[in-house]
Specification:
The protein is α/β, with parallel strands linked by helices and 391 residues long. The protein contains 14 helices and 18 strands. Bound molecules: nicotinamide-adenine-dinucleotide (NAD) and zinc ion (2 copies). One zinc ion (ZN) binds next to α2.
């Protein structure tokens, strides 16, 4: 089959690779209908995620059709149209039973790397390095889906493929940020980043009752899209001081909940941003946390900051003093998709959650390297490139 392979930093190519097979009785094989790029893939492309090997198939967000079913699979049959969570989770361990699905103890087949990096390993993800299990990704014609009873979800009739595709990852990630960030009716919520994840976090905050949602980015087309399709207010951080603007718009108090949806490659033209760039390139710090710092300073006293952006290691100049003295709750997580996806698909079916506008650049899988160039460099208003492997 055809698949998009990581070949080295900023090097991708479409190659012929072996078709996946059922390896475990709980697997299904999904024939991919659509698969999309994610900001997380850009961190792979940039060489910021360790344990990638040339030839690894990337991609972790996909919808498709079940074409082979392992003997212990109970909830799926041939021909089912399913959207699959980007995180792979066993459904039976202590973490899965406590709704902490991305922390599953049984899905990461390569726990040693995560243990060395973080103390305990995170769960497994499709197409996201050998540190996250070395699973083959979804930018391919077929994918093996382990623990399919827990990770694959039937798509309700009436929800089209393009809309449902985003239930793999960006919609549940955004929802988790607003939910576990503690958004309550009446809150003011600020969201850094107007990519798919940030837009979905902003939408989730509204659906959870936030009175005002303020989204922050610098790309005019992303800001306009967030105003139009999500209904949030926006701030262009390249044109104004974000902290001062947020104080102004919140009567001097600051947002109740701040959600960071930017991650380790944050853009920052200030002195601290240059410092982060240099240190990251020299590998003296692994991540550039400008948006996290800004969120911590901007948040109201006693408020909550939720980090959705992916970070891989250590950062400098973390404002621990602001966190402590302002009594903040700071959390982060990889997405616990299995907890939210069925509810989110229902909301999509009811028309409460619109996602299809995120698919700005549909194209055949053969053109995926071009799609990544558009997405990485935010060219031509690209928010997500969506690949269809079929002819
Ligand atoms: N926690 C999870 O489970 C999970 C799941 C999916 C994605 N992610 C992460 O979420 C982040 C966003 O993903 P995406 O797909 O939306 O990516 P994206 O690249 O499409 O969007 C990121 C946005 O952040 C903006 N940005 C950059 N620097 C900024 C700054 N200083 N202030 C405000 N905005 C800034 C960019 O202009 C861009 O629009 C990535 O780090 C990704 O790895 C996490
Ligand atoms: Zn993703
Ligand atoms: Zn588990």
């Amino acid at each position: 089959m055809k698949a998009l392979c990581w070949q080295g930093v900023n090097e991708l190519s479409v190659e012929e690779v072996p078709d996946p097979q059922i390896l475990n009785a709980q697997d299904v094989i999904v024939k991919v209908r659509l698969t999309t790029t994610c900001g997380s893939d850009l961190h792979l492309l940039g060489g910021y995620i360790p344990a990638m090997r040339a030839g690894d198939v990337i991609g972790h967000e996909f919808i498709g059709e079940v074409v082979a079913v392992g003997s212990e699979v109970r909830r799926h049959k041939m021909g089912d149209r399913v959207v699959v969570c980007s995180f792979i989770s066993c459904g039976r361990c202590w973490y899965c039973e406590n709704d902490l699905w991305s922390l599953c103890d049984n899905a990461n087949t390569n726990p040693g790397i995560g243990q060395a990096l973080f103390g305990y390993e995170p769960g497994g993800v499709f197409g996201y390095s050998h540190a996250m299990g070395g699973f083959k990704g979804s930018h391919a014609e077929y994918v093996r889906v382990p623990f399919a009873d827990y990770g694959a979800f039937p798509v309700p009739e009436g929800v089209d493929d393009t809309s449902a595709l985003f239930a793999s990852d960006s919609v549940p990630t955004g929802w988790m940020g607003a939910h576990l960030g503690g958004v309550k009716p009446g809150d003011v919520v600020a969201v850094w980043g107007c990519g798919a994840v940030g837009q979905m976090a902003a939408r989730a905050a509204m659906l959870l009752g936030a009175e005002r949602v303020i989204s922050i980015d610098r790309h005019p087309e992303r800001l306009a899209m967030t105003e139009r399709h999500v209904g949030a207010e926006t701030i262009d951080y390249s044109a104004t001081d974000v902290g001062a603007e947020l104080r102004e718009r919140t009567g001097g108090r600051g947002p109740d909940v701040c959600i960071e949806a930017v991650g380790m490659e944050a853009h920052d033209t200030g002195v601290q941003g240059v410092y982060d760039q240099v240190k990251q390139q020299l590998r003296l710090e692994t991540d550039r946390p400008s948006a996290v710092r800004e969120a911590i300073y901007a948040c109201r006293k006693g408020g909550s900051v939720f980090v959705l952006g992916v970070f891989g290691g250590t950062v400098d100049k973390f404002p621990l003093g602001a966190m402590m003295n302002k009594g903040l709750t700071v959390r982060g997580a990889q997405q616990h998709g299995q907890r939210y996806i069925p509810m989110l698909l229902e909301r999509m079916a009811k028309g409460e959650l619109k996602t299809s506008h995120l698919a700005t650049h549909p194209m055949p899988l053969d053109e995926a390297p071009k799609g990544y160039d558009l997405f990485k460099n935010k060219k031509d208003g690209c928010v997500r490139a969506v690949f269809h492997p079929g002819t």
